[in-house]
Write a structure and sequence with these properties.
With about 650 residues, this protein is an alpha+beta fold. It is built from ten helices and 37 strands. The strands form eight sheets. Strands 2, 4, 5, 7, 8, 9, 10, 11, 25, 26 and 27 form an eleven-stranded mixed beta sheet that branches. Strands 14-24-15-20-17-18 form a six-stranded antiparallel beta sheet, with no helix packed on it. It is globular.
Length: about 650
């Protein structure tokens, strides 16, 4: 006879199991997250209130434990924020965040100074691609330097969260992918300021300044005439480019058609590509008729392997890809990164390969200028132990998305989410993409001032230091209309704002390379400006800056500030300064003779009896500039009219 069931005990068991199940469900369903800026190895800004935020269930209590303190708050509308008191530099610390049964732990936190590094390709340029990179990386071992790369992304509306990102500690491996300008800035600054430094690298190659300004501000009825001109010209340019691309791809939009619900659908080796175009590889897509295409292009090709070859690791060369790639073989991702200079060479595991036809798909993302699979034909190949197969020739091609780089919402997704995170200051290197015409270069003055003022307003930290790189020399010597010279002048006019500094780079450019490899001196000069503006050190931080001029007979006497120990004609046997020009009232400039006298430069040309104007280094690529102070800092280009 079976034992009788104890009803009371049974009910207790059922209720107990129900409660355990409910508790388990409740615990698993509880939402607790933290801003993506908060993860292992991070740096928090010293001497500023510390804000920590994230998501949790409505009404949930959230507890933060950090540096011997406990802080609590309640989630409202699914979001929570805790503000901790300001703290001095130090660490490493650990942080724990708890809500209900969920917890988050963050390790190896330092408190120091945060510098936001923003702009276009010359700020995005990595340490591994700079001058003497191997030597530099062998010495990169300062664990008090940390780097956070904000992923490229955009949004139509201000976003409260970044797409992703994580903090990296400076070492011989990780530093290769740091922003070079930011790293060399920090490397030099750390010699003078012994505190941890965190770099937040929010940059995008090819981006225009409009992309980084709060769209609400640009769309405001109070925008200036110059801003309206910039918006109108950019909209017209984008509209024309979009019409051109839609001739071949009528369905194209700003959303990548090759990705659906986060799934890479155009990497499918069985994808039907009958309606795709053909494109010659290597070549930038602008040369294939897609003028003004900024966005995403997809490439597909096939290659054959034998029974023997599919059992070995093969090598694929995909040329130089401008700017970023995600590369696939038979639908499996084999690599990808952003770097328009380095040839893509990937190893492919034999597990991916198959006998006969194999598919290659390359997703290329370009932010401005030339885009696509470029380089030399020899850079495109399949290499096995038996043969090398050329991949140069016709590929299938389709545009996945076209992006208006002028108004891509980079501010909304790459800057706005940072504004709750206290910082020390901003480093800025941008302007190349806004120097296409004289009007653009002139309008930059107003847009740049707007950006600086707006960022300061959004961060609510007052007039924090904002230090920029004046564009380096690039392009043809002496060619008018000198758009880059005008843009440099527009940049320098921001110096009228409080706590704004510039690093002069006119002597660091390369005539035929828009990305000069010497980022070491750029970083050094930025660090000098920071020492003066951000850290209050009494140092000379800039080369000579034009102050005033006086006409005396057939000569003009030009006065300068930031002369330091004196003015020099660097490496000149006859003490002559190069790149000085003089003009009458007709603005026809002729090469000038010069003499340095104390804190001034005397300028003349024997042909001109009644001079009126002087200019220095006033061209896109002024050639050999040699006007410096004795401390070795170059003079800034200028034009007196």
């Amino acid at each position: 006879m079976k034992d009788k069931i104890n009803i009371k005990s049974y009910l207790k068991l059922v209720i107990g199991l129900f409660l355990l199940s409910a508790l388990a469900c409740s615990t698993s369903d509880n939402q607790l997250s933290i801003s993506k800026l908060y993860n292992d190895n991070m740096v928090i800004q010293r001497n500023q209130p510390i804000r920590i935020w994230g998501k949790a269930d409505e009404g949930a209590r959230v507890k933060v434990q950090f540096n011997n303190g406990e802080y609590e708050t309640t989630a409202v509308k699914g979001r929570w924020l805790v503000e901790l008191p300001e703290m001095r530099a130090g660490g490493p610390y650990e942080m724990s965040i708890n809500s209900g049964g969920n917890s988050i732990a963050i390790k190896n936190i330092l408190i120091g100074d945060i510098w936001v590094c923003s702009g276009q390709s010359n700020m995005e340029w990595t340490v591994k691609d700079t001058k003497n990179a191997v030597i530099e990386l062998s010495k990169a071992n300062d664990t008090l330097i940390r780097h956070f790369k904000v992923p490229r992304s955009g949004s139509d509306k201000p976003s409260s969260e970044l797409l992703g990102g994580h903090w990296e500690v400076c070492d011989t491996s990780s530093t290769a992918d740091f922003t070079a300008v930011g790293y060399y800035f920090t490397k030099n600054l750390r010699k003078e300021v012994d505190i941890p430094i965190g770099l937040i690298n929010s940059s995008w190659g090819g981006s225009r300044i409009e992309s980084w300004i709060n769209p609400e501000l640009l769309n405001s009825e109070f925008r200036s005439k110059e801003e309206q001109i910039a918006i109108d010209s950019a909209d017209t340019r984008f509209g024309n480019n979009l019409k051109n691309v839609k001739k071949s791809f009528p369905q194209v939009s700003n959303k990548d058609a090759g990705i659906f619900n986060d799934e890479i659908i155009w990497s499918d080796p069985d994808l039907d590509t009958k309606d795709w175009d053909e494109i010659i590889v290597p070549s930038v897509w602008e040369n294939a008729g897609f003028h003004g295409l900024d966005g995403v292009g997809w490439y597909r090709a096939e290659f054959d392997l034998t029974e023997e070859e599919v059992h070995e690791t093969i090598e694929i060369g995909l040329g130089k890809i401008d700017d970023c790639d995600r590369s696939f073989v038979n639908g499996i991702e084999i690599g990808g990164y952003c770097d328009w200079e380095s040839p893509r060479i990937y190893k492919v595991d034999p597990k991916i390969l198959k006998v006969g036809k194999n598919n290659i798909t390359v997703r290329v993302e370009d932010g401005g200028g030339g885009g696509g699979i470029a380089g030399e034909e020899a850079m495109l190949y399949i290499k096995t132990s038996k043969q090398t197969i050329s991949l140069a020739g016709k590929w299938k091609f389709r545009v996945g998305a076209i992006v208006n780089m002028s108004f891509a919402g980079m501010y909304n997704k790459m800057v706005h989410p940072l504004t709750k995170f206290p910082i020390k200051g901003v480093l800025w290197y941008q302007g190349e993409s806004n120097a296409n015409t004289i009007d653009e270069a002139s309008e930059y003055e107003h847009l740049f001032t707007e950006l600086i003022n707006n960022w300061r307003y959004q961060w609510h930290q007052g007039d924090f230091p904002f230090i920029f790189v004046q564009l380096a020399s690039f392009g043809d010597t002496g060619v008018t209309p000198n758009n880059w010279a005008i843009l440099r002048d527009s940049q320098s006019k921001a110096l009228k704002l409080k706590n704004v500094g510039q690093a002069i780079a006119i002597d660091l450019g390369e005539e035929h390379d828009i990305h000069p490899k010497n980022k070491q001196d750029v970083g050094l000069r930025l660090s000098l400006a920071a020492q003066k503006i951000a850290y209050g050190q009494n140092i000379l931080f800039s080369g000579p800056i034009y102050k005033s001029r006086t006409v005396q007979g057939n000569k003009i006497i030009v006065e300068f500030s930031n002369i330091g120990s004196g003015l020099i004609a660097k490496n000149s046997k006859d003490n002559q300064l190069n790149e000085f020009e003089i003009a009458r009232g007709d603005n026809v400039f002729l090469p000038a003779k010069t003499v340095i006298k104390g804190n001034s430069v005397v300028v003349w040309n024997d042909i001109i009896k009644k001079p009126k104007y002087v200019r220095y280094a006033w061209s896109d690529y002024p050639g050999t500039v040699n006007f410096y102070n004795k401390e070795g800092l170059p003079a800034s280009p200028f034009k007196t009219n």
